[in-house]
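Internal tracking record. Fields below are filled automatically when a chain is submitted to the structure queue. Please do not edit lines marked as system-generated. If the sequence contains nonstandard residues, flag them in the REMARKS field before resubmitting.
Queue: standard
Priority: normal
Entity type: single polypeptide chain
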Amino acid sequence: MKYQTKRVALISEHASPLADLGGVDTGGQNVYVAQLAKQLVRIGYRVDVFTRKDNAALADIVNWVEGVRVINLKAGPEAIVAKEDLLQYMDEFKDNMVKFITRNSIDYSVIHANFFMSALVAMGIKDELGIPFVVTFHALGHVRRIHQAEADKFPVERLAIEEEAVHQASFIIAECPQDKEDLIKYYNAPDEKIVIVPCGFSAGEFSPMDKEAARRVLGLPQDEHIILQLGRMVPRKGVDNVIEALAKIRVKSKPVRLIIVGGECEELEEEKCPEYARLMNIARELGVVEKVLFAGRKNRSRLKFYYAASDLFITTPWYEPFGITPLEAMACGTPVIGSNVGGIKYSVKDGETGLLVSPHNPAELAGAVSDLLNDPGRLNEMSKNAIDRVNEYFTWTTVAQQVNMVYRMMLPVAKIIQRRSQAA
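SYSTEM-GENERATED OUTPUT FOLLOWS
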């Protein structure tokens, strides 16, 4: 078969670019895979995204956008399954991916695995078809266990799979310096194998707009300070920390309202969403229910209005491999107060585009919010700096160009493997 240099397979077993965002298992990885696929096409690649078929109504092959196909592979029941329970279906996923590649005689020059289960599949593909792979883990099992302990429901085999993937991958894409440090510390990853490539934001989706106009679109008051928390509604995201801080914020000029965007559905119900119920109880106990608006899940096209309508974006997770939402907020001109962890301390320039605070510290967060809301001149300067920073360093165009460099470094490896395969 003729060797092709411009065909790539992205594996993302639980995070499809077709999925609605905001649920427990949908978020940054879905965005990463979707945007990277689109940008790789602009560079000249043809892209296939392999993901698990979680709905019987889905077509096996979806021609998503020009140059990108989404291949929905059968692996376990054709229904939603928590990602913590998916490992048992990865052999079937790998077998069906191998069948798809061989049946269609496709020559992928590289496979790009996303998450540890996709890396397991990629190792199987490498073993059977000789195709090298690069991996972006998006989160590391060792780090997760440090922060979540017994709350981590992933199988213990995850750690061994990640260690083997580090050994077998041609390159590892770390999303920030902290990610690289963790790979070296916990997995003995060779420094020369690791390339730091951040996540990005879409300038076509997120850009500055008038704050008053954004509030009119959303029906929000003009005479309040609005702080925004947006993302998946799971404990590790630290939404409770923001609610607790709300009770301690001291701003003289205007009332402060917290808007929380995210959740399983647009109309949240305590009976159906335990995390929402937990957060509501905290708000009640602190007497801030009237200051909190749970907006529920929103279509992606609406998010820019929430970012633009806000005076500050708050994100204080326990840990964060990268975090795309701070980039989106900054792209809209909204300064960010974020946890001094992982990718957030890489993307947010402390004191220039926002402030970094300790996680689990509502008093410190409240002080940071109060300081900025009481200093509109500083807030305005941070807004300008935020827009400049993300457009210089964090566009998906830049990310794809850097990923392309990683793929190009893999070409000599791919050619060696191909020659060995032909000789055999």
